[in-house]
Design a protein that fits this description.
alpha+beta, 13 strands, paralog of FGE (formylglycine-generating enzyme), 318 residues, four-stranded mixed sheet
């Protein structure tokens, strides 16, 4: 049975809003059997319907417009709740977020992350910092509910992990990176040097870069690798299991990360960030994935959005 769509209506449905890119329906190999990371197993072919995706990561200017229009207050700008932290004294419930600092030799694992009172999207490194002249930088210190609130206001949604990875590959199915099989520090904003002790900045940036500072992938998407990690709508579990759901697969109904056994709500983030280095993280590959608690923002996590084409999906699946 064919689904008949009037040409004028079909043209409207198939058009993407300004600053979004149409990703054509197709199949690709999701995950990787070659990285040595169990969370990327097992690579398998899946099919994805057409959708639109933001050309760039959501910027400070875009998020500021949302806040101005709605009065929204982000998670990092709210005091820590008594429900979540019942034993915390009131004087320690001040709003804040996680901030990265260069580590000293001999530093303990993850000691380069510090809770900074007053850190939020307006003040990325604490209340004395600001985003003046950084309108075109990706917004950070965004918790999951902040991204969802922005998406609802914008009439869009967070991508599924499948959508994100398919778009990130840029048509290069099974390639290691979004541009091919060889790593290049000139293709994305990543960490050069030995993380977390020194950064040579040979790509031109020690921290976040303005969106669009590096070449796009094959679909015309910028900063799909590095710069900031990007939130997806899927819960995180190790590996992929889509054998019985290989068309527009969505993630599991519950999350679990063996590396974070006490956290029972974790979303998939993709793409790596300016803090990913060859010697640490190295998750600046389309297949790479990491887990993130929904109530926490940091200096290296942002997002981009999709707009699903319901009619296009129906046409492909009839």
């Amino acid at each position: 049975m064919a689904l008949i769509i009037p040409p004028a209506f079909a043209a409207t449905v198939n058009s993407c809003p300004s600053e979004m890119v149409m990703i054509p329906d197709g199949t690709f190999t999701m995950g990787s059997n070659n990285s040595g990371l169990i969370e990327e197993l097992s690579a398998q072919e899946v099919r994805v319907s057409s959708f639109c995706i933001d050309k760039y990561e959501v910027t400070n200017a875009q998020f500021a417009a949302f806040v101005k229009a709605t009065g929204y207050v982000t998670v990092a700008e709210r005091p820590l709740s008594k429900e979540q932290f019942p034993d915390l004294p009131d004087e320690q419930r001040l709003p804040g977020s996680l901030v990265f600092e260069i580590a000293q030799p001999g530093a303990k694992l993850l000691s380069w992350w510090h809770w900074q009172t007053g850190a939020n999207w307006r003040h990325p490194f604490g209340k004395e910092s600001a985003i003046v002249h950084q309108d075109n930088y990706p917004v950070v210190h965004i918790a999951y509910e902040d991204a969802v609130a922005y998406a609802q206001w914008a009439g869009k949604s967070l991508p599924t992990e499948t959508q994100w990875e398919y778009a990130a590959r840029g048509g290069l199915d099974a390639a290691t990176y979004a541009w091919g099989n060889q790593y290049s520090e000139k293709k994305a904003n990543t960490w050069q040097g030995i993380f977390p002790f020194f950064n040579t900045k040979s790509d031109g940036y020690a921290g976040i870069a303005p969106v669009g500072s590096f070449p796009p992938n094959g679909y015309g998407l910028y900063d799909i690798t590095g710069n900031v990690w990007e939130l997806t709508s899927d819960w995180f579990r190790p590996g992929h299991n889509q054998k019985n759901h290989s068309v527009n697969p969505k993630g599991p109904e519950q999350s679990f990360d063996p590396n974070k056994p006490t956290e029972n709500a974790l979303h998939v983030i993709k793409g790596g960030s300016y803090l990913c280095a060859i010697n640490y993280c190295s998750r600046f590959r389309p297949a790479a994935r990491e887990s993130q608690a929904p109530d926490t923002g940091t200096t290296h996590i942002g997002f981009r959005l999709v707009k699903n084409l319901t009619i296009e999906r129906m046409k492909n699946e009839v």
